[in-house]
Structures
1.
Amino acid sequence: MTNQKGKPLLTNREREVFELLVQDKTTREIAEELFISEKTVRNHISNVMQKLAVKGRSQAVVELVRLGELVI
């Protein structure tokens, strides 16, 4: 899925974070697996929620699946 300018909706890192999130990984586990800080994980999640105009992680996941950005 791409936006109006032809760029992908999610960055590679945002996609990685959400792929781990749907595997029921905690923020800490995602941070450790991707070698980034927990704050960076939260920032990626927050950025995606902002892009999608949703209010929570679960809403973001539902919307990403609906858009075909995430397969669960």
2.
Amino acid sequence: MTDDLLELMRVKVADGLQREKTKEAINGWERTALLTLKEGKEYNFLVKDNNIVVNSGSIDNPDMKIESDEDTIRKLFLEETSAASALLKRKLKVKGSASDLMKIRHIF
């Protein structure tokens, strides 16, 4: 199941990169993020050179740490729920600088 989650995230990130708002948000921005699922799987995001790359696996010293479960992440990427709703329900935890957190809301 998690392999199709990786594919879903890659497809939705690629779709997002077509939007002008996303392009503006990541212009000149370089960050890494680690997504850890309660089910044990980890994914990493690299924002660099006006692109976002999603891979399976952990990374050292990410700029942002995201914790959730597979169902919530799937719903976020399918736009069936919002990050604000998931945060309020404590189904999503995000750690990072305030400016980074404000910027990522424009990406998806």
